[in-house]
Design a protein that fits this description.
8 helices; 3 strands; 191 residues; three-stranded antiparallel β-sheet; elongated
């Protein structure tokens, strides 16, 4: 908690009260205090505005009129933003649903050998080593992981999803789609 929190509003708090950058600059001008952000040294300074000055500005006819006039526009912008957000999210899900996911079949013993080799290539330097004699559940788990990560779509789609709307749900959907195909091709390795 900042020592300024009881007497000042920061910019985030002003925006929660309905202010915009334009009106902060127009009615309040320069901040009363600017300090370096201790949590993020390379980021912009935190600007603080004296609460009494903010409340005085909020009580002016200019601010009240602007706020009243801008609310319908802001509401419409928010609704439009939500519609666009939902549309982009749905486009991502539709794209994932329409992927042609193909998992090649091999004999289970060959799959386990490939999974052990794949696992060891990744983890050997960290002191973790798998063998074909390991527990069947472990071999099945690393087989699923290998098949998922070696799927032609997994790594590419993960990279393409970065920063997109619905990315977290998209990751889950992609994983479920690939896992579903893996378990269709290899029903015996489903845990």
């Amino acid at each position: 908690m900042s020592k300024y929190s009881s007497d000042y509003f920061n910019k985030t708090q002003l925006k929660e009260r309905g202010w915009t950058d334009t009106y902060i600059k127009k009615l309040l001008g320069d901040p009363d205090i600017s300090i370096r952000n201790r949590n993020y040294g390379g980021s912009a300074k935190i600007h603080y505005y004296l609460q009494s000055r903010v409340i005085e500005a909020e009580n002016t006819d200019d601010f009240k009129q602007w706020l009243a006039n801008s609310m319908p526009i802001r509401t419409k912008i928010s609704e439009t933003h939500l519609e666009i957000h939902e549309q982009r999210r749905q486009e991502l899900f539709d794209h994932i649903d329409n992927l042609d996911i193909v998992i090649e079949h091999m004999e289970l013993a060959d799959l386990h050998r490939s999974a052990v080799e794949h696992y060891n290539n990744i983890w050997r330097e960290k002191g973790k080593v798998a063998t074909i004699q390991d527990d069947k559940k472990f071999l099945n788990r690393i087989s699923v992981n290998m098949l998922r990560h070696c799927s032609e779509h997994y790594e590419t789609e993960i990279k393409n999803m970065f920063g997109k709307t619905g990315v977290d749900e998209g990751y889950d959907l992609l994983r479920k789609r690939i896992d579903s195909e893996i378990f269709r091709v290899y029903p015996d390795i489903r845990q």
